[in-house]
Structure to design on (811 residues):
């Protein structure tokens, strides 16, 4: 017995030196929750793909910076014709892919044509829908002609799904991504980590980190231990908000609560009775206590929203008081709609904690006005199949994490089944309007319309719970696109 | 003995076939379209159709079933939908984590449990026995994932002796890789060791009442010699049965433990594959795991035959 413990003790004592190699200058261990299924952003929707390779390995014609602004990427400049339909991109010179081949107009053409082809498996094919034709003028210029003026075309080109791939290497990008970015792909130990190293032939300012490793840690408890043990230097978006207090109290760590593009909503099936009645939806809106949900489900992190729009966007209108918490009003609206005695319905909750915890709180809040919700937990795959595709749901909670996605309300037969001529009109106007001020005005009208119609229960903007080693500098505080751009990251000396 | 072997092999094949049919049918019924999971909420219908065609999902179920079974027979496991690499490659990468982990855990639990069980039995109703039985009860009651978290807090967070998780990889060297597996193996082994200790103890106690032990003592063997030479060997049959059963529990346990320690093993692969509807991986893995459980039971049966010569002639026990 004694010998056994002795043996164990000597075993573990021998391990000490190995522990210290991780945090050396120039290397970053970045924790991410989900492992990407593969590493090609042009062939999958998983945010986990962009979280590893966007801006690090792959670049597009434009890029989205940490403030959500459109910056030149592989196109050093561009000009737009007066009718807003022709974009002439001047490509950077001397850019090479990681396999040594030159990046020129042929690759840009190839990338765009691949994305719009009929057999394309690009998850955001809609981004390219406005494109009518694309042509090269020599090796250094690409001209894109649109079917109609498209306001945020340049922003769309900055998405991970619109990166420029090499004609020679595109087919292998899933397993061996070859881009033009400041980091090259080194290896992927499936289930564990992806390793990147600095691209010394990078066209722009070289990365400060020599190497970076993305480690996949899905379990929140494991993530806490990994941070505490120093196995991981940073979590750009920590999976469990309940642990932020613990990190805040520890001087080794820096906690940064940023914003995301995730509008978290109580999606309501507008096509199904009794939710097709605007009075029922208004009653729900009056019964929802956003603060209680944010405090209870998200431990206080999150900004209340009153429509489907990100509060940090310049065109944001605060509509959280359109339907203030008022149970009497809610009950009278229910009675007006013929549901004085309330009714029963279901709420399908996907796995994230905002949904599972938020759902329980909403169920108790709606009980106050006589709506008895049966809680049905579902997996993502089930949610996609049943709620999203099959529209088989009454209520559900989901965070719509794509940037500037208010346009989904204009989609025909989208899962929450909202139909409004007025709203569609705003979207058409927005698509063709290029003047920024006028665009913001239309965006404001659109937000008001959604709020007025109480389409969904608008809950809160998902926060980004960043926690990292206090000596790490340069990580993104917000996530205007789903990315962990490591270009400017360094260790404090 | 030959008949015994043949019978067992037929059983093995039949079990695998049933497992294959069950898992295929269950996954057919299970809601969730792999293409939709891959492409997400913005995907357009034509894009989804293109991906489904690429995955071969546009073919009828029975065609896919026979293609899959035919593939399995010829060792062709198919291609993962999500990772887009051969499933055999994925499994190969993961087996080198899970198998050593399971073997380490099984070895640890045996090495801890059998001596403790025998010692407890030999000190029947003395303080040490009561202490060991109590500790075993405690060990059974502790869920392994919770114990794992305690281990991490002590050895990784506070003492910083071992990493809190992850797998260094065998190419990083034998020791760093083994080191990544130490805590998980220990966390897996403890509850198993607790059960095994109790089984060994009661089994040895029972055998100690047998006539042949008394005879051995009467022959002049010391208490300890009679215990180790005669009683323990005879007490091992129930212990081996439990060991065999524990192997299946270990496989189930690795799914949780591999998540707690974020180890890239088979358990986590299965977990991920189910969530992402990487159905081909799920099917292959379930058949593989079922196969290994059946195989272990087969080895356990052989173990009985080694321990108990009466079974070799094909007598009473099947």
């Amino acid at each position: 017995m004694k010998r056994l413990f002795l043996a164990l003790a000597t075993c573990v004592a021998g391990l000490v030196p190995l522990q210290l190699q991780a945090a050396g200058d120039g290397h970053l261990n970045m924790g991410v929750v989900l492992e990407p299924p593969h590493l090609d952003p042009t062939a999958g929707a998983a945010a986990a793909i962009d979280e590893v390779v966007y801006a690090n390995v792959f670049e597009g014609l434009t890029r989205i910076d940490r403030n959500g602004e459109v910056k030149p990427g592989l196109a050093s400049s561009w000009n737009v014709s007066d009718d807003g339909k022709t974009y002439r991109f001047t490509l950077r010179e001397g850019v090479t892919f990681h396999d040594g081949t030159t990046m020129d107009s042929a690759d840009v053409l190839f990338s765009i044509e691949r994305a719009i082809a009929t057999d394309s498996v690009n998850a955001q094919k809609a981004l390219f829908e406005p494109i009518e034709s694309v042509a090269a003028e020599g090796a250094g210029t690409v001209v894109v002609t649109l079917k109609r003026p498209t306001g945020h075309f340049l922003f769309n080109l900055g998405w991970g799904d619109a990166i420029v791939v090499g004609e020679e290497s595109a087919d292998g990008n899933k397993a061996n991504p070859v881009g033009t970015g400041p980091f090259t792909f080194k290896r992927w130990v499936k289930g564990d980590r992806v390793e990147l190293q600095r691209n010394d032939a990078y066209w722009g300012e070289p990365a400060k980190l020599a190497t970076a490793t993305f480690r996949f840690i899905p379990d929140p408890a494991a993530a806490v231990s990994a941070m505490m043990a120093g196995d991981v230097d940073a979590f750009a978006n920590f999976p469990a908000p309940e642990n932020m207090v613990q990190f805040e109290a520890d001087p080794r760590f820096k906690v940064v609560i940023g914003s995301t593009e995730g509008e978290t909503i109580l999606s309501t099936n507008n096509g199904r009775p009794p939710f097709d009645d605007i009075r029922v939806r208004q009653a729900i809106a009056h019964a929802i206590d956003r603060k209680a949900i944010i405090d209870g489900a998200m431990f206080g992190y999150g900004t209340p929203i009153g429509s489907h729009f990100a509060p940090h966007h310049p065109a944001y209108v605060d509509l959280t008081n359109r339907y203030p918490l008022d149970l009497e009003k809610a009950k009278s609206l229910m009675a007006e709609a013929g549901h004085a005695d309330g009714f029963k319905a279901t709420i399908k909750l996907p796995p994230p904690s905002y949904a599972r915890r938020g759902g329980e709180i909403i169920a108790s809040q709606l009980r106050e006005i006589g709506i008895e919700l049966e809680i049905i937990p579902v997996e993502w795959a089930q949610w996609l199949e049943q709620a999203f595709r099959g529209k088989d749901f009454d209520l559900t909670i989901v965070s719509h994490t794509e940037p500037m996605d208010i346009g989904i309300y204009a989609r025909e037969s989208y899962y929450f089944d909202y139909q409004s001529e007025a709203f569609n009109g705003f979207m058409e106007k927005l698509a063709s309007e290029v003047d920024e001020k006028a665009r913001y005005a239309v965006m404001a009208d659109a937000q008001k319309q959604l709020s007025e119609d109480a389409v969904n229960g608008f809950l809160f903007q998902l926060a980004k719970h960043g926690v990292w080693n206090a000596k790490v500098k340069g990580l993104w505080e917000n996530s205007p696109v789903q990315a962990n751009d490591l270009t400017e990251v360094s260790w404090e000396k | 003995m030959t008949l015994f072997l043949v019978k067992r092999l037929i059983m093995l094949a039949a079990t695998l076939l049933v497992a294959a049919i069950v898992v295929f049918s269950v996954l057919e019924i299970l809601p969730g379209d792999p293409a939709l999971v891959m492409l997400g909420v913005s995907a357009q219908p034509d894009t989804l159709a293109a991906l489904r065609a690429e995955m071969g999902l546009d073919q009828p179920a029975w065609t896919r079933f026979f293609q899959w079974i035919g593939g399995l027979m010829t060792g062709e496991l198919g291609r993962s939908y999500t990772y887009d690499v051969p499933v055999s490659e994925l499994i190969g990468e993961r087996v080198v984590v899970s198998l050593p982990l399971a073997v380490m855990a099984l070895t640890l639990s045996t090495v801890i449990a059998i001596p403790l069980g025998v010692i407890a039995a030999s000190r029947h109703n003395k303080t040490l026995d009561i202490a060991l039985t109590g500790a075993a009860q405690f060990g059974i009651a502790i869920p392994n994932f919770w114990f794992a978290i305690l281990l991490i807090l002590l050895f990784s967070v506070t003492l910083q002796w071992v990493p809190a998780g992850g797998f260094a990889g065998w190419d990083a060297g034998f020791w760093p890789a083994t080191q990544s597996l130490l805590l998980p193996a220990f966390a897996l082994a403890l509850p198993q060791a607790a059960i095994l200790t109790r089984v060994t103890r009661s089994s040895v106690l029972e055998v100690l009442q047998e006539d042949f032990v008394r005879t051995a003592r009467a022959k002049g063997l010391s208490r300890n010699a009679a215990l180790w030479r005669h009683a323990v060997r005879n007490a091992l049959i129930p212990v081996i049965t439990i060991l065999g059963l524990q192997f299946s529990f270990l496989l189930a346990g690795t799914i949780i433990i591999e998540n707690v320690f974020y180890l890239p093993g088979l358990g986590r692969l299965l977990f991920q594959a189910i969530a992402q509807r990487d159905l081909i991986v799920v099917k292959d893995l379930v058949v593989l795991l079922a196969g290994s459980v059946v195989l272990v039971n087969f080895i356990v049966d052989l173990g009985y035959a080694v321990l108990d010569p009466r079974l070799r002639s094909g007598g009473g026990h099947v």
Remarks:
- Chain B touches chain A through 59 residues (CB under 8 Å).
